[in-house]
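Structure, all two chains, one model.
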Amino acid sequence: MDMGKVNKKLSARFGGAVRAELRDGSVVLSGKLDRWADVVEACQLAAVKYSRVHVVNDITCAEAKAQPMRLPDLRDSVLEGARPDALIIGGGISGASIARELSKWKLDILLVDKEPDLALHASGRNDGEVHPGVDLGKGSLKHRYIRRGNAMYDEVCRELDVPFRRVGQYVCFDKGWLRPFIALYCLWRRYHDGISDTRIISGAELRRREPALSRDFKFAVSNPSSGCVCPYGLTIAYGENAVQNGAKVSLDTAVLSMEVEDGEIKSVATNRGTVYPALVINAAGVFAEEVARMAGDRFYSIHPRRGTNSILDKKAGASFSSIASVMEAARTRGRSKGGGILHTVHDNLLAGPDAVETWEKENTETHPESITHVFSKQQRTMPALSQGDIITYFTGVRAPTFEEDFIIEKGRKIHNLIHCAGIQSPGLTTAPAVALDIEKMAVEELRKRGRTVERNESFNPIRKGPPVLRDLPDGERAALIRENPDYGVIVCRCEEVSRGEILDALRSPICVPTVDGVKKRVRPGMGRCQGGFCSPLVAQIIAEFLDVPLEDVKKSSSQSDITFGRTK
Amino acid sequence: MRTYDVTVIGGGPAGLAAALSAHGEGAKTLLVEREARLGGILKQCIHDGFGLVRFQEKLTGPEYAQRFILRFQQAGISCAVQTFVTRAERAGEGFDVTLVNRDGVGTIRTKTLVLATGCRERTAKQVSIHGTRPAGVFTAGTAQHFTNLLGQLPTKKCVILGSGDIGLIMARRLTLEGAQVLGVYEAKPTPSGLTRNIHQCLHDYGIPLYLSHTVTRVLGAGRLTAVEVAQVDGSMRPIPGTEEVVECDGLILSVGLIPENELAQSLGVELDPKTKGPVCDGQLMTSVDGVFSCGNALHVNDLVDYVSESGELAGRNAARYAAAPRRTVPIRPSPALLYAVPQRLDLDRDNSETALYFRSREVLDGCVLRVRADGREVFSKRYPFLRPPEIERLNVDFSRFGLHEGSEIELDIEVTEHG
């Protein structure tokens, strides 16, 4: 890479405030800028999309105050001295799926996450679309994994008992004259991506399939292989299956530092003791760069990009059954696909997400502008879309590199490290396929280190989730209630969740006995009243289950008290 | 399959009254209640002020409910508690209702249905509150549930958004429990709750009321640590530059109630966009023959006495129901009214003593309600003042107005004096 050219561009734009140099195979940017937007722009100027030569951001930025990673309160030594074969850092979709695939082998696997549950960051805060695999540059890792990942979804979700629907996706166009160009583009994509089911359909056909979509659309690209899944449900299911097959999951566990010697990670210090892993897998999402830094293997940078999604009432969900978005003429460079409308597996509508660069990796605050932006855009897709139907909204933070591609490779300087980093859209789609490759890399690396790695003969790929009574025919529902009358006591009226299902969640392989933990697993509080009626009841069931006073039950983290003890 | 003449869904004050009156008419009646105990939301309303109209007494919520529960039990009416309706659909002349409880899944058949399903509270996200998602943000009813039913203090220092009655009641309740209530913030320029509650719950305890203010943002990672408040303009949008951060550990929301009509909608019942309840005739029958509505599912009431009254009316008419084609005329409120119930009259029914409920859109002093039938004034009533939070009820004899098919009834409010 020609650093002279890069520096010329940087100097033209930032007048010498930033410089680039090639160091250990990465383009390292240093200097000083006032605004974070300029830092992102500088790094994007230096970056080559999908390149393996990564930009490392060492620019000091006045605006971006260094924010330490939020850490759990917990301090104990339950992990002290542990010697796992594989330490997976991060309990998102990447870490959980890798843990599950590795549990096919007789290995001591430890997955740690600093949060009180799995999927609390990007994996639990996205739209749940399983992407079709178009519109990605050839040669990128995204491109390499997406079709394999997409194709695996039916089987993976069947094995893990997670709802998945291949509902199809429509990219809609309001300018008819574009049709021949898009048709050519589709042909080229078919040849290039090998995707044969992509079709162009007329505006009339689009409205026959989805009457709620705008009458302004002249045609649409239809991608029938697209689907939707519950992203945190899938992550938890992967995690549970890993645990059932022998892996350990330690929540509220943050990696604090590493001891590195001769290109090897010797030990990893956490708030729950120091562990001595043979192999470390970095699946730390927005914090992957920090983990790489601790290991002395930081050859890329993550620039967080937040996005906000809104969930709409099921009544709005009834008007639309697939995934759609409007194609805009102008697209911002380097940004992931903009928002869309999606009918979720739980029959709500989802609108979003937007994409906003930020230096704050853990700031998941929502802002009214995000909602307004998404709705003004998506009302062009579906005119009847109304903010009045919103029941909740949430923000997630994506973890892209400046090259906008995944990093799935062994450490460049550290031998017992595998990076699964830069994972952003379509990371949910690719995760099942990526996990298989990381499994291979891990087994190979462990064998190289003299470790005998044998098949886990008792591996069972089937994870059975708690029964979802509202979806069962009356006869089956009655039979389950006969076995367990708690299944007949409805606690959450909006989502029709029974006491029995809540207790199932509390007895599941990864027990997270908080109101949010139960909500993520069996959905009390996910409906239109947002827990107004059921949250006190759920808290009470948890208190009884744990045999603790009600005030000890938390919403999520240890600081999230719900009540402060007895009244007068 | 068990069969009933009248099945009442919901065992709060409306449902209890409906079941009692249907039973009183000799109908074979079933009451279905989701919770383990009858009484609905009254169970947690331990303050007094209930029953002034009906009993000329100030009762607490549980006391008021208990009077009906005792009569209900003495009457020996069939009742299924801790039982949830998963489905109701037309079957023959009546309806099949699928019920789930600890005994399993069962279906009953009923000639008529009375929907007394109450209402739910509007949530933080429905009033566009942004920021983080900490613990400590409660709707007033949820905070009341924790405080009064579970004996748990939900906050030590809080801000209340919205001056709805439950919010005002909770301001006093939490103060009595030793919590600090920093203020009640109301986006509208006038309070939403009853005047008596503004006095008895805020003024008497020195709790400030900030009109034309709202909460724009919540802060805090685990538990709420502060809220951002701001003044709002005439269209209730926050005015930039007026934001102020108020430290607190709780945000209590009393920002409106929404009638629960999901079951009604599944039956094809037409809803009034203004009340968010079913469009009903003077007998409180909805647009679907044989389906009746009452209480807060019909429209949000401010007095339980009216809730009971509408339950009685719906229950009685459900018991007397006989399928027949309906000839109806609409009752159309002018924009000066927020809404009016009922929304129409059945010409073949007795309309001589129709209970008419309405709310004005704005605070008005010195005004007159005018009822016009086919353009000519047939009835009027003077009011010294009208307040949107306070519902007005009057009996109108519509039988005297010579209504016929194609007639239209209009309601209007005219201001007669100024000052």
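Chain B has three domains: 1-121+258-323, 123-255, 324-419.
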